[in-house]
Amino acid sequence: xxxxxxxxxxxxxxxxxxxxxxxxxxxxxxxxxxxxxxxxxxxxxxxxxxxxxxxxxxxxxxxxxxxxx
Length: 69
Hints:
Elements: H1 9-19, H2 31-50
């Protein structure tokens, strides 16, 4: 007698996310939010360069939309 195998929903969801099916993405930012955040970062760093505060400049961490906080 065969034992019934159940699908692991977490693994299934991970596979779908990797395929890029947009309806099942979780913990991702909208592209417009990412663009806004990057624009604000660029403006802030430009201001620091103009005011010569080079020690306060930080590198931008690209996360491809995955939330990291």
